Task: structure prediction
Amino acid sequence: MIGPDLLGVTDRREKSWLIRWIVEPDKMLKEKDPIAIDLLKQFNQIPMPNLGVSETEAQNVLEHIASQSAHATKSPETNLLESAAVAASSSNPPVRGGFGGAQLAALIVFLILTAIIIFVFWLVARSTRQPVPVIDMKSAYKLRKQFFFGATVIVLGTLAATLPRTPYPDDFQTPDHLVYVTARQFNFLYSSEPITNDTDLGQVALINSLEIPVEALIEFRVTSLDVNHGFAIYGPDHSIVAQTQAMPGYTNRLRVRFLTPGTYNVLCLEYCGAAHHFMRTAFVVR
Ligand code: CUA
Result:
């Protein structure tokens, strides 16, 4: 949906062109390569990102596409559908959907707040049609004072009750492991060294399948190469564990201790472009 179908692409295009396109698409776009510009136009101006793939890896990718294309013996349409289904099922681990207790509670709170707002608007609208009442300023000030103290108690109480439960209590310890996270349209890259620009991409080794030891203190150093993204970690039970912003030109530190082993999903939580909803990755805690 965000790029051309790759079935039989090795027959359609020059091999040298394909390899260069996989290795340094950003450069080819800058050089205004005619095919690259044409593809950019066809696919909603979503540029093919530089994924930091080496030439050998690009070679392997093309061999894989060629062998898969050769196996495709059925009518092209069924194959398209099937490969789309396979791609969807393999790249997106199933996420448990449904409408549970937490969502219902949020809906009820939302409806109550909406009702209060409508009621207040109605009260105000009605009061404007009536003669201005005489206001007892003394009791009005007293009421204001009560409101102020009431609100202060609620805010401080909420802070005291929730702050110790945030996932950032280990800020004064040295983390056991550092993981560099680089976000870009539309994926996340893990590495053990920082990636701050496109030149680093080809040089810094990427971690393809990240594994994190259970109960260790992990510090994620999160940045972005293009626009703002969100780096949100969801646990094996699909509830959110921690999140921070991935911002261009800035590194956010996010410290987390994972107590439950399993597969954690990382989703982009900031609308970052047409393929924002595809921007996800995962890691394993053992
Ligand atoms: Cu990146 Cu949304």
